[in-house]
Structure formats: structure tokens, C-alpha cells
Design goal:
Order of helices and strands: HHHEEEEH
Number of strands: 4
Largest sheet: 2 strands, antiparallel
Helix content: 40-55%
Radius of gyration: 19 Å
Number of helices: 4
Length: 152
Amino acid sequence: MAAVAPLPLKSEVAELPPPKDAEAPPAYSPEEHSSSGPLSDGRRKHRDHIVSLLTTNIQHPSVSIADLDAAIHYDKDYLYSLHQEKSNWKGLTVYKCKDDPRGWVPKYWWWMGWTYNFAGERTEEAKEFGRGHEVLKRAREGIKRFEPIKGM
């Protein structure tokens, strides 16, 4: 059986400088963004900036875990707002929303199960939002794998 080399410590890994054309995302402050509402333009711009940085480099050095968590939290708030909008529901059982990138969504009363989004073709904005959400989730999962185990 071949010996497996241990992963290098963070101090042993050379830090890569950020690309010259990339600008660091603005620092996320919950107070600033929550005061203007859960779906404010500031939160959306912050999320879009994080996605653009991660699209060029999935492990971009200037993107912190807090930035990723804030962007993912915005996505959840946005999708929840679409889900709760009564105009997207026909009789509270049939869901039709072209702005929602998801195919399967929880029913209006979540304990009743799942339903399909019958909107047909999604808008380009919804498709782009869905691709960005996948990038955020992949980046967050990549960071989770290398986080130290607490208590060790």
C-alpha cells in the first residue's frame, strides 16, 4: 500500500496574488445590507460581484467565506420571495414563474411536498442566476472540504 502524502499546511502554500484586473469585493456588513431590505440592490450587486470573481477563478483569493455565505443567503432570500409571491401560484398548487431557475420547488405549503415549475422556458436572467448559484455552491463546498475540524 502506497503512503499518502499529507496536505501542506496553509503557511507552506504560497499565496497567489489576485489577478491585476480583478478588484476585491467590498466588505460585507450585515447591518448595511439588512437595513435596506433582504433583496436590496446592494446585496444583489455584492452577490453578482462575487459570482463574477468566482467565474474566473473558483478559488479566488480575495473571496472570503463570509462573502460566499452572504451571496448564498441572498440567493435563498430571492428564491423564497419568488416562491411566496401569490401571483406565481394558480390555486396554491400549480407554480408558474419564469424568473425562478428551479425546476422543482416546494409546494406553497412546504409540508405538502414538491411541485414542478410549469413556467416553460425560463428568462435569460433566471438562467444566469441559476448558473451563478451553482458556482457559489461549488465554491462553498470546496472550502468546506479544506476547513479544519473543530476541536482537533
